[in-house]
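Example A, followed by Example B.
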Amino acid sequence: MTFQPLLRIGPVRRFTRNLLCPVDLLGRPLFLKYTRDLAEAREEIRGHARLARHYSVPALHAHLRVPGGHLLAYERLPGGINQGLLLDLLNTDEPSSDLHAYMARLTAAYSEVVLATAQPVDPAHVVRKLYWDRAAPGGRLDTYYADKDFLIADGLIDVPVSRLDTYTLSINGRRHHLDWAATLRWLRAHFAKAEPVWAALTQGDPTDVNLAHPLAWFDYDTAGMNSIPGEFANFLWYSSALGGWLVPTYNPAAFADHPATFTHVPANTPELRRADIDRTTSTIHINYAPCLSASRRTAVTAYWNQLVQPVADRLWPGANLANLLRPYLAMRILGVYNLADLAPKDRLALLARLAEAMSPTFNPTTYFCPLESPCPAP
């Protein structure tokens, strides 16, 4: 007779400010999430209830106050090392049939719910955490950048960001202009507007670690009525920049159970080819290759063609999607990591990406999904 322990506890992982742990209790597989932020725990519980009526989510079995925080016990979905997430379908050299099928299911589920729940909403009543709160006084824009200055790229472009507006930026041979202070003011003003925004019921933070394979949604503290352009910008930027490059570079502990991520970082990291200043013309030259692996290009392309464009055609026929996405994309570039804390090459690449996003010529279809990846394969 084989003895089954009443309680089996797996490795504890830290993700952002939360602790996550798999547990087997009386033969039942559970996933425990511990957070110190009571308000965030309450939002998570409410968000899970909202989402469960429209999306596939693991059951929330229990939640309780514990010393120093709040503990939530979820049904644990199948998974393992390099298994169980959309991330794992992206950590391949070439896109698989599973990835194509997954993106078809994902975009179909989103299309149905977004179009069924879409409506203009007062910005006071949308989920504000990822955009409005970060642009508000005392939010991340202020915490990271208010009354602070830093070099564009130490040792490469030794010019403070506060003086960017005095230079022409030549990025991959195209002329751009970026006024750092004006960009911050514009973002604060944009997210201080009182006019309604188009919102729909979504999870709000659709990253490749918050999407399970088979399809299900994790992490619910931003679930609710979310800005639709904000939802789109979040997935597109995470899939094309954060998930394959910046997050594994600056938060590697989050990928302890998905180590294949690190093998593919080179294929998703922009390759800097030129960075210098022509003082005679006040021009900063930046040449870089916007690398994206074949699997991530496939996911981003499917998301755009099967979700973003059809929804936009229904809700905003004839609208310029670049203008709709721009403020949300800029907030994702500036409001996730403090650019001053990043390595000079990474900071320079993000400033170049910001300048391209703020440009009147910003084209989301080529910006998020370059036609080919000129970076060397991992």
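Example B, a separate protein, is given below in the same form.
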Amino acid sequence: MPTASRRLAKASLRHLGLALIGLVMVYPLIWLFFASFKTNTDLFGSLGLWPERFVWDSYAKGWQGTGQYTYTTFFLNTFLLVVPTVLFTVASSLIVGYGFARFSFPLRNVLFAVMVATLMLPQTVILIPRYLIFRNLGWLDSYWTFIVPAMLGCFPFFIFMMVQFIRGLPRELDESAVMDGCGPAGILFRILLPLTVPAIVSGTIFQFIWTWNDFFNQLVFISSVKKYTISLALRMTIDSTGGATDWNQVIAMGILSIVPTVLVFFLAQRYFVEGIATTGIKG
């Protein structure tokens, strides 16, 4: 009994510690939620969590925006940019990763090393060349500047992740599929694709969050307000109101902007953890 009591005490302390750490990490989000109901005076005059006077129309007024476009337009624009970018990124990374992991061709190791080396390039280094290329193609102020690179496998992080995951899958699966009459495409889509679901989900989550939260690239390549995404719209809301910014409305829209990313993460959390923690299949 004493041993069982000690184990229970240790487990209780462990869970209590984890709960406290979780509360510390979540507290900023809780504060933001209540801050969306505060007045400017209350926001900058007190660090308390509970508003002295609730402002109930911050979400409704914030959704109306500051011009002729509401946040309905900005949310739709964001989905129009993010969803194709994510889907094409995952698809192209899977195909390229399959090629590197399963096929032998001239300069494969050199090309793979060059691909991995591009991971070390800061985005600011390639920004000007990308801008000039997109300008010459007439793609500026459009979502093609994000979608086409996703189609062409221009995200080495996800390719590397797919390569490592596919390398962990037994080659005997490929050999068995060949004996059953499958070609390279059949092996990928009928045999390996179901097994790479954890890696695909992990890549989807990463790319969705990164693209949804991206501000710098969208600021550079998108100039029309009617094509603005959430991140650009939030910045425009602050700039357009000058010194009389209704911060509760900005915070309210900021909270709504993180809801899709949080939902995507928690809905796919099980596959995400499996994709990060494993590099093959379990027996």
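On Example B: The two ends are 38 Å apart (CA to CA).
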